[in-house]
Amino acid sequence: MTRSDWNASLYLKFEDERSRPARDLLAQVRHAAPRQVIDLGCGPGNSTELLAARWPDAEVSGLDSSPNMLAEARKRLPGRRFELADLATWQPDRAYDVIFANAVFQWLPEHPAILRRLFEALAPGGTLAVQMPDNLAEPSHRLMQQVAADGPWARQLAGVARDPLPPVLDYYNRLAPGAARVDLWHCHYNHALFGAEAVVEWVSGTGLRPFIDPLDATARADFLARYTAAIAAAYPLAEDGRLLLRFPRLFIVAERGPA
Predict the structure, then answer these.
(1) Half-sphere exposure of 148 (CA within 13 A, CB side)
(2) Is residue 1 part of a domain?
(3) CATH number at residue 104
(4) Which tens digit of pLDDT belongs to each residue from 243-257?
């Protein structure tokens, strides 16, 4: 499968909706005065900006695997350090007080082991704060797989969907040893969007990418037309013409014990 770089402009069309989970996650981080803070999968810097505002005296940096996203982040926060790296193999170069990750680890099949490794790398008393979409059972994502399986591209797209998240108990068992506190919860957002086309535009910047990136222009247009029609049938419109995109997310906050 070929994969294009992330589209920062498309991602930021829904900046407020995408930033809200980051704000909600950050609100549950209790560290009062961290010195070293990193935003993993920082994207265009919207979540990094929240961290910098919360802790203006900390050294706040960001990491992402997308040059396009990092270029946008550097424009947004020119005084901060941003690093291009693969999160699957990245090793912290210092003991961070806060490791923050908003909507990135769902892309990594082996992420529970990575989370444990990052937790162990925290400074004493440090916090690992993670949020991941848990929406593969929603119509928005079930229909991606249905359209992929029913079209002429079925063989080409076989196996491109990301894996479901493990049960929350798996995360707890990974992080509880050595933790002073592990907090896990789900939140279900309901985003009011203007029609099926808005849903397609939203997921085209994230979850739909593995399905459409491998296709040529003609096949991609056909896939998107079928998917848009399926979304329109699955989501009833409200009286004002909008639809509600239900979006479940998993939150994890793990605090390391003192030295």
Answers:
(1) 21
(2) no
(3) 3.40.50.150
(4) 999 999 999 999 999
